[in-house]
Amino acid sequence: MTGTLHIVGLGPGGAEHRTPAAARAVAEAEVVVGYGAYVDMVEDLLGAAQRVVRGVMGEEERRADEALVLAAEGARVALVSSGDAGVHGMAARTLARAAELDAGERPEVVVVPGVSAAQAAAAVAGAPLTDDFAVVSLSDIHMSWDRIEHRLRALAASGIAIALYNPRSSRRTEGFDRAVAILREARGDDGPVVLAHDVTRPGEAVRRTTLGALDPERVTMRTVVLVAGDTARDAGPWLVAVRGAAAVRA
Ligand SMILES: C[S@@+](CC[C@H](N)C(=O)[O-])C[C@H]1O[C@@H](n2cnc3c(N)ncnc32)[C@H](O)[C@@H]1O
Asked: Which residues on adjacent β-strands are paired with residue 238?
């Protein structure tokens, strides 16, 4: 008999931005599996009877397999991910592994959507992602930098807004500098940028800057960087991108 695996997007951090469906999937699970920091985000939902499997960064595949095996053995499992599990989260990797199982051994798998960091950051800044936007991860762990740069160049030239995930770590600083240089080249120094750090978490800091004035030292792995598109403009205290408006920037 197989069980159920919920792949759960927990939202950007604060419990009030977690959906009721996500909370229910975690509260009703017999086993909760996740990277340690994400398990910490659901501490308020966990009961003494639940088994918790805390994983480490970089072992996503192992975590996916572990959750699938437990569910295939009959357990109700919640595999937790931050933000939306389908946006640089655990969903694709886990579904791909699930598809490799024989249909009879495959547990029921449900993906529970969540609020992604870019959406939460945009809401604080105004509505800079209302017109078209793209999400790009600058992490080169699973993809070569050349490929990331190729995508970034095409997007920079397109004029749409870009949310940069996994932008810069203490070890990996060069990629972010390259990304900013590519964006400046295509969009000029005045292009508005939002640096959103720890959105909806304690210590939240959301700052407006420009491509030319951006201080990389303010950017960490807990920052999502929103690079405004060509229709973005100031509207009072807000940054907004009005679809159909004339392009403000070349
Ligand atoms: C592995 S990705 C996970 C993204 C997540 N699945 C989502 O939809 O938001 C981790 C990156 O998301 C961004 N991020 C996630 N939560 C954030 C938050 N609360 N504030 C700022 N950035 C966040 C950061 O860029 C971080 O390096």
From this structure: 235
Query: Same domain for 96 and 111?
Result: yes
Ligand 1 pocket at CB < 6 A? 12-13, 81-84, 87-89, 116-117, 165-167, 196-201, 221-224
Range of the domain at 24: 4-115
Could you report the per-residue pLDDT of 87-96, keeping only the tens digit for each?
Answer: 999 999 999 9
**Residue 73 Cα to chain centre, angstroms:** 30
Are the beta carbons of 159 and 93 closer than 8 angstroms? Answer: no
pLDDT tens, position by position, 36-73: 999 999 999 999 999 999 987 778 889 999 999 999 99
Angle at CA 136, nearest 5°, toward 22 and 132?
85
The whole-model pTM stands at: 0.96
If we measure between CA atoms, which residue out of 216, 211, 229, 2 comes closest to residue 106?
2
Residues β-bridged to residue 126: 239
Q: How far is the CA of 198 from the centre of ligand 1 (A)?
A: 8
Residues, the chain, total? 250
- Counts for the chain of helices (H) and strands (E), in that order: 7, 13
Domain stops at, among 77, 99, 115: 115
